[in-house]
Structures are given as C-alpha cells and as structure tokens.
Amino acid sequence: MNQTLINRITESLAVLCAIAAVIILARSATAPAMEDSLADTKVQAVAGLDMERFNTLLNEARRITDSNGDPGPLLQVLEGSFPGRHEVWALAARSAEAQGREGEALLDFARAVRLQPDYLDKRSALFLGKRIEALTGKVMAGLDAARTSRVLDGAEKELLKTAYFLRRRMAGGCE
Amino acid sequence: MRKPSSDVILIVGSGLSLGALGAGLALWGNPANSGICISCFVENLSGSLGLHQNLRMAYFRPELAGFVIGALFSALMGREMRPRSGTYPVLVFLLGFFLIVGSSVFMGCPIKMMLRLGAGDLTAVGGLFGLAAGVWLGIRYYRSGLDLGAPGQGGGIYQGVAVPMLLILAMALSAWGLLQSGTIGPAAQRAPFAVALGSGVVIGALAQRSRFCVTGSFSNLFLAGDRSLMRGLLVLFLAALAVNVSMGVFRFGFLDQPGSHPDLAWNFLSMGLVGFASVLAGGCPFRQLVLSGEGSMDASLAVLGMIVGGGLVHQWGIVSTSAGPTTYGKAAVLLGLVFCFGIARFYRKT
C-alpha cells in the first residue's frame, strides 16, 4: 500500500480516537454529579465534611428505619450533604425494602455496593450478601414475569441491568 | 507415526500448565476466573507497594515472583540469559503502562481472557476478537515498514536481572509482613503460598523454553502463518475448560460471570489496545515478565511501566468494575490507541 496513504490513515485513526476521548471526558465533566452512571460511582473525598453531624443524622435515620418509620426526608438531607457515603445508600435500601419498594431498594443497594464492595464480602462485618441476593432474585422474578406479557420500559431495563451487576459482583472475581 | 518435536511438546506443556494451573489456582483460593491474571496480580503488587489505596487489591502474589524465577533458572540452564536492550526505553515503559490500562478496562490480561472463556464466560468473546484485531493491526504496521529496531546485546547481567531480583525481594518483604496486604476482597483470596510460588516457577520455566505468549500466538499466525503457538493457546483453553467442567465451576453464558462486565464494545477496544501494544512491546504482559527473567531490559522496563500502571489505574478510576467501564477507563483506552498509532506513524521506515 502507498506509504503516504498509510500515514494518512494512521493519523486519521489517531485523531479519531483523540476526539472520541475528548467527547467522552467532556460529556462526563458537564453531566450533573447525581447523574453518574453506576460504573462511574465513586467515593467522594470526605475531608472537610462534618462527620459528627453525619453520624448524628445517620443514627437518627437508622432509629426511624428500625421503628418502621419513613426516614425519607432525613435521607435526602444526608444524600445532599454527604454525597458518596455508602452508609446512606445502604440505609435508604433497607428503608425502601421495608416499605415494599423493592426496585428502589435494589438500585440503592447497588449504589452502596459500588461505593463499598464489603457489603458482598463474607469476611466483612458489613456483609449483606444473603439479603441482597434474596432481593435480587425477587426483583428479577418480577421482571421476568413482566417480560412474558409486555416489553420492559426504560426504568425496568435499568433495574434489570442493575440486578445483573449485583449478580456478577456476587459471583466474585477481581474488582 | 511421527513423534512431536520438543518445541511442540514445550508449547503444549506451556498451554497445559497455564490452563490447568490457572483454573486450579482459582480453586485453591485465588479469585474466581483469576487463577492467573498478570494485570490483576500487577495491580495487587502495586497496591502492596502503596502505589494505590485500594486495600482490597493489595497483596504480593507469589506467582509473579515464580514466573520470573522459573524463567531466570530456565534461561540460565539453557544458556539463554542474555542481557539486552533496545533503543526506545520511554516507549516501552509507556507501552507497559497501556498494557495494564487495556487489561484493567477489560478486567483481565490475555491469559485471564482465555481462562474466562474456558469457564464459559461469553463476555470475554469481545475481548478475544479485540485482541486478535489489535495484533493484526500491529502486524500490518510491521509489514508496512514499522521498525523499532532489534535489541542489542549488552547492559550487563546486573541490570539484566535487576527487575527479577526486585520482584524476589518484594516477595520476601511481603512474606515478612512488610508490604501492604489486604484482609478483605480479592486480596484476601489466595492460593497457599507454596502452591502459588511453585505453579509460577513451573509456568515461568516452561514459557521461557517454549516462548509461549498469547499475543505471540496471534502475531505468529498473522505474520508467517505459523500455527505452533496457537496449539498452546488451544491447549490452554481446553485445559481450563476441562478443569472447570470437572470441578463444577463452568458457567456458560453472559450472566453471573465473576470479574467481568458485559460491555462487548469496550471489551473489544480495550483488548484491541492490549493486542496492539503487545505487538509493539514484543509480547503480552505475561511474556514481558518471562522476558525480564531472561535479561531483557526492554521487558524489565515494560514490567516497571506495568507496575506504575497498576497503581494509577486505581488512583485515576480507570479500572472497570462489574458495573462496566468508567468514563476515565474509556478515555484512557482511546488515548492508549492514540499513543500506539503515534508509534506506528513515527517509527515506520519508508
């Protein structure tokens, strides 16, 4: 093949890859933080956060959840003020599950697991694997049943994707 | 009947040991489908050295030292210990870095890709095609005049064995508890020390004698139509398949696959980067370790680049998880391809 042509093709491929990389980074930089995909969920730096206030609010939310109340408003405050804290997502999941909102509970558990994989590690004191496994099975069974009669909507597809993510995490392997 | 040549026996032996021990080490305690995974092991090593803060991936895997010890002794016994270096050390270092970038976005090196396929993981198929495509691309450039020069003899035995000795030292420090070692997550999943080290030595020695390399299998095929290394690759797959099926851990399909994500497009591109970079660097991540054990300073530099990469992929959020590739991971793969295309553009002799 003509050497000049090979050079032009190589340059074009390099430029194409560079443009694609810039677009991907720019889209991420301009997206609101709360719209991060599950894959992009990352632990936020906690330096400078008022951890005393965090613990007080979290303990209060836990108390309300344990007494079968709705800690929703308090959890919203926690999510807003302390983004990226896995404890908040795990508690939100427990609360949603207790109130029968299983899909929401699964999404919240997935977020907690992304931030803190120890929730699925038997060696950890945080281990909630059995509970998450049971919930995942329940949600998937519901989605499978729905799929037999109609096409799943966007939110349900997202839920199914999240359930598959949790199943892969429960299967183990390197992360 | 014609007797197989010693070369074929060595290649088949390498594939057999990698496949059987790779699947076996996962049963002995290493993370599922990651009985042998050079990129995972290098990330573990980087974590144990404190180059990243993810303690779940911080542990010195004795297999790593085993590979270089096996290769070192095999090279010494076969009088193949030849200290040598090329003329593009910075490129080789950065290629080592991008080998880990591509592997971490795919979630495994080419050997783990074969082990995943042998365990029935269909999400790895995208990676297989990507790796083949990347190697094919690199070979096309070599055929059209890409020339990174042949390594020249010299540099001295001291420099030639520096990286293997550092790995052996790191193993000793780890055994004495002086390196970071995670007690949870993949870092806590370990085959017994002697089994891990012994497996590494056997595999390293066989791979040094046979020149076995996953990307080399493809490049020999594309470059010269030589199928000899492909036999080793096939045996690797079949051995892993046999162990996984017989031990009841074979899971066929896309779902419930450990240490994987289902994004086929990024599996293809990330392994494409690994294939392309491997051709430019002269071998896959495993081959770089083996070559460093027989005195190749280029390979030693690639290994150092891999260790730095193992730290940065975690610190910079490049590494994929079961949820899929991250934004930074995707961008890093694309920049790695830009880097490889740059080499292909500027080092072609017309």
Descriptors:
heterodimer, A: 175 residues, mainly alpha, 68% helix, 0% strand, B: 350 residues, two-stranded antiparallel ribbon, 1% strand
Order of helices and strands of chain B: HHHEHHHEHHHHHHHHH
- How helical, in percent, are the residues of chain B? 55-70%
Query: Biggest β-sheet of chain A: count, sense, barrel?
Result: none
**What is the helix content of chain A?**
55-70%
Indicate the proportion of strand residues of chain B.
under 5%
Cα distance, first to last residue of chain B? Answer: 47 Å
Uncertain residue segments of chain A? none
What order do the helices and strands of chain A follow? HHHHHHH
Coarse shape of chain A: extended
Which whole number gives the mean pLDDT of chain A?
87
Oligomer: heterodimer
Helix/sheet category of chain B: mainly alpha
**Helix/strand class of chain A:** mainly alpha
β-strand number of chain B: 2
What is the 3D form of chain B?
globular
Q: Using only CA atoms, what is the Rg of chain B?
A: 18 Å
Average pLDDT rating of chain B: 94
Radius of gyration of chain A: 21 Å
Number of strands of chain A: 0
Most extensive interface between two protein chains, with residue counts:
A-B, 40 and 51 residues
In short:
The complex is a heterodimer of chains A (175) and B (350). With 175 residues, chain A is mainly alpha-helical.
Question: How would the blueprint of this fold be written?
Answer:
The complex is a heterodimer of chains A (175) and B (350).
Chain A: H1 3-30, H2 51-66, H3 72-81, H4 86-98, H5 102-115, H6 129-149, H7 154-170
Helix pairs in contact in A: 2-3, 2-4, 3-4, 4-5, 5-6, 5-7, 6-7
Chain B: H1 6-28, H2 38-48, H3 62-77, E1 84-85, H4 89-106, H5 110-118, H6 125-143, E2 152-153, H7 156-160, H8 162-175, H9 193-210, H10 214-224, H11 228-246, H12 264-281, H13 285-293, H14 297-315, H15 327-346
Antiparallel strand pairs in B: 1-2
Helix pairs in contact in B: 1-5, 1-9, 1-11, 2-4, 2-14, 3-8, 3-9, 3-13, 4-12, 4-14, 4-15, 5-6, 5-11, 6-10, 6-12, 9-13, 10-11, 12-15, 13-14
